[in-house]
Amino acid sequence: MHLYKEHIITVYNQYDPTHTTVLRNAFVRAMERRFNELIKIIRIAVVEQDCFGAQKRMLIQQMYPPGYHAFDYPRSAARVEAFMQWLKIQVDKGILTIQQFQQIGEAVEAAWSNMYIADSYKRGIIRARYEMIKAGINVPSIEDSGGIEAIFGLPFHIDRVGLLFTRVYSELKGVTEAMANNIAQILSQGMIDGDGPRLLARKIIATIDGKDAGTLGLTDKLGRFIPAKRRAEMIARTEIIRAHHLAAIQEYRNWGVLGIKVKAEWITAGDSRVCPKCASMEGRTFTLDEIEPMIPAHPGCRCLALPIIL
Ligand SMILES: [Zn+2]
Q: Ligand 1 centroid vs 107 CA: distance in angstroms?
């Protein structure tokens, strides 16, 4: 007890008599500021600027931020222009990615979206054969034709799927171009209005994911607003159905040369999400020429054409 008390007094006496409390506190605060700044700059370096390229290695897309104050030019037009140039590079790398992949045993440079379209197209072929056999049409099985890759590689299929690849890619490109236009406008207006970084970020991100789009007053020419991400997701869904449908119709057509005439029956998913337009088509019969351009009937359509013998 006695020792403890003496210790306190010693500590007290060591510091207080010098009358340096204010100076000491100022020194401590200055020290804290320096360390806080060090923490901040480490966070920016490692997280925001990703100085080790850790994020780059994490993402297949290889998008990366431009660096601290990268576009801090005196003129706001130059700031917008520099941002838009950077954004275009990110979009090209991350969303309109061209990558190497195997296509019919060959390494080709192609859009990343191709593999999904090709997959759906192949499923369409497989489903069509299965449904034809089920309907009593005398066609060989997938195996008897040398397997799905062999069938997929036949000119009438590979030509069609090539058109679908181009279509999907150009639609996606259209979405990113519209997105870039929106962002350029928002940035220009934001510079005029003197928006802070948080508000600018919120507005830019809203054009992509639609969050806060209403409160931020975003609209397109038609007075409504479909954010880029949702438009792209709609394309993905719709084009999968289109690839599946066109593959099936092509398969039904292929047997025409053997004198097998196939018509198609419109089949919906049959659940509560089927729209009234598609529901009214359920069970109706069409020629292949008629039904080919009819499905998908709208974005998000999930309809199918089943073969029937005449
Ligand atoms: Zn439908």
A: 36
